[in-house]
């Protein structure tokens, strides 16, 4: 059967930095607390009014430029995001126009912090179907647009960014995206959600006053779930492909908390020197964390050679979680 491969990567990072020191002036927190509990030192914040598509378009353009592919060659665009410019039209439509992908269709995919992984595997299956040859997969989130900067439980954790990959058919047997495992469990709803602004509780003066248009999270519950479930699928995907942690060149986990990443790597039997971590600089950018890490590994460090195994794993609101195995 036909397989897909990642041909190219692009990203966009807003210039503006919000450091732990800045946050110390906004809420009752400290650089020391944030560093030891999360591993985050600073995050990027998009200027107000620009929106998710602003970043997604820029990441997509870089991705296509690196591949030397014209936007008109793109068949489909999938944007994994929980912070679209608006409910409708989808961010994918805005990206289509922004890059000039005049033959493409596309859609947004909502899966919390698993948005990129779910979008990637959806794009992979579109390539595998034989119907499409170039699928642009973007993870992009303006978390600053849904964060309550008076709530120290959440405001220290998130940042803004976008990352993009271009998927193509993989000509060589045994390479490309080999396998994935994905799950959702709606029992996670109470622990991580946005209370208002949807159809159950539309925006009103009351919802604004009650600060219900922001991320609500019970961190401890999410933490426990993440450590067990993300590690489980990451271990399982190795096992069922006859691999061990030592066979994997790079592990790219979703960047939500350094302690979650370390626990997951340990369960996979991987040393931290083969785990991509950039949470210190960008915090949790939801849909963008994994492509940002992939960008650093591939473009900046040239850390993947042909034949190397790569595992990417994520978890997020829903709950949602999943793991993808790639042979580069
Ligand atoms: N500064 C100082 N103190 C703080 C801060 C802060 N920024 N935030 C919380 N605290 C306090 C709490 O109020 C609490 O005080 P109390 O004991 O007096 O009540 C204390 O610190 C300990 O809080 P915990 O929640 O127990 O701290 P924990 O070690 O669990 O760390 C954290 C909290 C970082 C949020 C962690 O639980 C975590 O990372 N959870 C997972 C988050 C995550 O992965 N989300 C993922 C997906 S997001 C998505 O899908 C959109």
Automatic annotation (TrEMBL):
Give the highest taxon in the source lineage.
Bacteria
* CDD domains associated with the record: KAS_III
Q: Where in the cell is it found?
A: Cytoplasm
Q: Which GO terms describe its molecular function?
A: 3-oxoacyl-[acyl-carrier-protein] synthase activity; beta-ketoacyl-acyl-carrier-protein synthase III activity
List each copy of the Beta-ketoacyl-[acyl-carrier-protein] synthase III C-terminal domain by range: 238-328
Q: Where is this region: ACP-binding?
A: 255-259
Q: In which pathway does it act?
A: Lipid metabolism; fatty acid biosynthesis
Q: Which GO terms describe its biological process?
A: fatty acid biosynthetic process; secondary metabolite biosynthetic process
Q: What does this protein do?
A: Catalyzes the condensation reaction of fatty acid synthesis by the addition to an acyl acceptor of two carbons from malonyl-ACP. Catalyzes the first condensation reaction which initiates fatty acid synthesis and may therefore play a role in governing the total rate of fatty acid production. Possesses both acetoacetyl-ACP synthase and acetyl transacylase activities. Its substrate specificity determines the biosynthesis of branched-chain and/or straight-chain of fatty acids.
**PANTHER family tied to this protein:** 3-OXOACYL-[ACYL-CARRIER-PROTEIN] SYNTHASE 3, BETA-KETOACYL-[ACYL-CARRIER-PROTEIN] SYNTHASE III
Q: What is known of its domains?
A: The last Arg residue of the ACP-binding site is essential for the weak association between ACP/AcpP and FabH.
Q: How does it assemble?
A: Homodimer.
The protein's matches in HAMAP family, at most eight in alphabetical order, are given as: FabH (MF_01815)
Which family does the similarity line name?
Belongs to the thiolase-like superfamily. FabH family.
What is the name of the protein in this document?
A: Beta-ketoacyl-[acyl-carrier-protein] synthase III
Q: Which organism is it from?
A: Desulfacinum infernum DSM 9756
Lineage of source species:
Bacteria, Pseudomonadati, Thermodesulfobacteriota, Syntrophobacteria, Syntrophobacterales
């Amino acid at each position: 059967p036909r397989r897909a491969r990642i041909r190219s990567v692009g990203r966009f990072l807003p210039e503006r930095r919000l450091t732990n020191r800045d946050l110390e002036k906004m809420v009752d927190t400290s650089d020391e607390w944030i560093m030891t509990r999360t591993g985050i030192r600073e995050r990027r914040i998009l200027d107000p009014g620009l929106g998710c598509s602003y970043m997604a378009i820029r990441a997509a353009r870089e991705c296509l430029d690196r591949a030397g592919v014209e936007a008109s060659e793109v068949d489909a665009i999938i944007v994994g995001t929980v912070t679209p410019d608006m409910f409708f039209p989808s961010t994918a439509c805005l990206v289509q126009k922004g890059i000039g992908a005049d033959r493409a269709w596309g859609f947004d995919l909502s899966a919390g912090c698993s948005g990129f992984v779910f979008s990637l595997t959806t794009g992979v299956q579109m390539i595998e179907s034989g119907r499409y040859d170039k699928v642009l997969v973007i993870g992009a989130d303006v978390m600053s647009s849904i964060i309550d900067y008076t709530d120290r439980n959440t405001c220290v954790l998130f940042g803004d960014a976008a990352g993009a990959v271009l998927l193509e058919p993989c000509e060589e047997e045994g390479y490309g995206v080999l396998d994935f495992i994905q799950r959702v469990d709606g029992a996670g709803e109470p622990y991580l959600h946005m209370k208002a602004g949807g159809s159950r509780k539309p925006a009103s003066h009351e919802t604004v006053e009650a600060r219900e248009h922001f991320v609500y999270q019970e961190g401890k519950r999410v933490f426990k779930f993440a450590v067990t479930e993300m590690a489980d699928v990451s271990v399982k995907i190795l096992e069922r492909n006859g691999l061990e942690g030592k066979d994997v060149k790079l592990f790219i986990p979703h960047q939500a908390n350094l302690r979650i990443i370390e626990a997951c790597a340990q369960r996979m039997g991987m040393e931290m020197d083969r785990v991509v971590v950039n949470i210190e600089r960008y915090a949790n950018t939801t849909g963008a964390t994994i492509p940002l890490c992939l960008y650093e590994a591939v473009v900046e460090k040239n850390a993947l050679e042909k034949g190397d195994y790569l595992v990417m794993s994520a978890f997020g609101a829903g709950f949602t979680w999943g793991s993808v195995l790639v042979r580069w």
